[in-house]
């Protein structure tokens, strides 16, 4: 009997020793203990490759500012999935969260509750309530949308028919980018109040001077749906001049549709973000240009700020670049074939696709 108890005791000790190995996290930074480092988290709004660059930025900042970071990508891009991820992170003892929120306007009460528990930063996609996040970090999406509008005017100086594609219109960045596009086409928001009301009511087509917006196609953040809707657009509107994609996967999906319809060179494509297929399209002339953000610094700066919150730094948000709405803008750029800015883009930062792509590939290593 004594021998049996000794055997049982030995088994119990072995099981206890194995417990830490079962406690590791799936995110960057290793085990849950992490050598005493605080856990912070970054949650994207979808699983697209755009976020791989942001993850690189979080990893670099985690090393420099002595925290662990768990990077999470919702498989579906659904707001409820993001909610479950947040609840899981809170159960792990996360100390701060950065998120690109889906359906942010309708989730304000939830984000307020989370922001009271741990510092919450909105990245890439803002939450339209100052009490629901400590700050916003990312692109000025209205101005980036205006850059898209400038590219439309450069590509179609005589005017034309345009269809806009974006994942969802319940995301603040989608709303703001489209606002920027149409504002630029009319030369200012005060000049297009009636048309903006039409857009909100989905009453198409909407005419902005010599430009006609045929509609806004959403695809629930699914590339294959975007491609199918682009094919349908080309079939329904054989005289469409320009297809605009406002999320990273939209331009490649549109390009596939244009190629399948044998319309390359006949229908202009203007994109957003730096998908590999988009950049290849700019090189071969099938895509006019794209407006890119800076996802690496989205990730880096978000972790830097979260580390400041973790360390109770009273000056963590004492930043000269932050405006009264607690927004920190990271400048966008235009990428085209030769890096030359046309007259309508003279005030934009424009880079040629080849050197930009080379730097991007180096970053992804």
List the helices and strands and how they pair.
Layout: H1 2-18, E1 39-43, H2 50-64, E2 68-72, H3 79-91, E3 96-99, H4 108-117, E4 120-123, E5 135-138, H5 141-155, E6 160-166, H6 172-186, H7 193-200, E7 206-208, E8 211-218, H8 223-236, E9 242-245, H9 250-260, E10 268-272, H10 276-284, E11 289-292, H11 295-310, E12 327-329, E13 333-336, E14 350-352, H12 353-364
Parallel strand pairs: 1-2, 1-3, 3-4, 4-5, 5-12, 6-8, 6-9, 9-10, 10-11, 13-14
Antiparallel strand pairs: 7-8, 11-13
Features:
365 residues, alpha/beta, Rossmann fold, 2 domains, 8-stranded mixed beta sheet, 6-stranded parallel beta sheet, 14 strands, 42% helix, globular
């Amino acid at each position: 009997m004594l021998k049996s108890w000794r055997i049982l005791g030995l088994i119990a000790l072995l099981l206890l020793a194995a417990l830490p190995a079962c406690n590791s996290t799936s995110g960057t930074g290793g085990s849950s203990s992490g050598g005493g480092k605080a856990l912070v988290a970054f949650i994207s709004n979808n699983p697209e490759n755009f976020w791989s660059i942001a993850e690189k930025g979080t990893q670099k900042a985690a090393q420099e500012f002595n925290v662990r970071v768990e990077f999470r990508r919702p498989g579906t891009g659904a707001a409820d999935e993001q909610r479950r991820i947040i609840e899981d992170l809170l159960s792990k003892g996360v100390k701060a969260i950065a998120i690109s929120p889906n359906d942010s306007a309708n989730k304000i009460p939830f984000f307020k509750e989370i922001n009271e528990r741990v510092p919450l930063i909105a990245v890439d996609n803002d939450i339209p309530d100052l009490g629901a996040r400590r700050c916003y970090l990312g692109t000025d999406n209205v101005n980036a949308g205006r850059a898209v509008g400038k590219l439309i005017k450069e590509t179609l100086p005589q005017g034309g028919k345009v269809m806009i594609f974006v994942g969802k219109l319940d995301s603040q960045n989608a709303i703001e980018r489209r606002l920027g596009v149409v504002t630029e086409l009319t030369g200012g928001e005060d000049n297009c109040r009636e048309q903006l009301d039409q857009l909100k009511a989905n009453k198409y087509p909407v005419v902005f001077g010599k430009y006609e917006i045929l509609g806004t196609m959403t695809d629930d953040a699914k590339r294959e749906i975007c491609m199918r809707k682009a094919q349908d657009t080309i079939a329904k509107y054989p005289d469409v001049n320009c297809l605009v994609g406002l999320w990273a996967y939209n331009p490649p999906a549109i390009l596939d549709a244009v190629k399948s319809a044998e319309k390359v060179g006949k229908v202009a494509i203007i994109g957003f973000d730096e998908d590999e297929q988009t950049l290849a399209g700019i090189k071969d002339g099938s895509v006019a240009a794209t407006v890119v953000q800076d996802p690496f610094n989205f990730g880096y700066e978000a972790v830097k700020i979260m580390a400041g919150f973790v360390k109770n730094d009273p000056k963590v948000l004492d930043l000269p670049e932050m405006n009264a709405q607690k927004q920190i803008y990271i400048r966008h750029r235009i990428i085209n074939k030769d890096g030359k800015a046309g007259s309508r883009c003279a005030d934009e930062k424009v880079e040629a696709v080849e050197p930009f792509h080379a730097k991007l590939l180096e970053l992804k290593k």
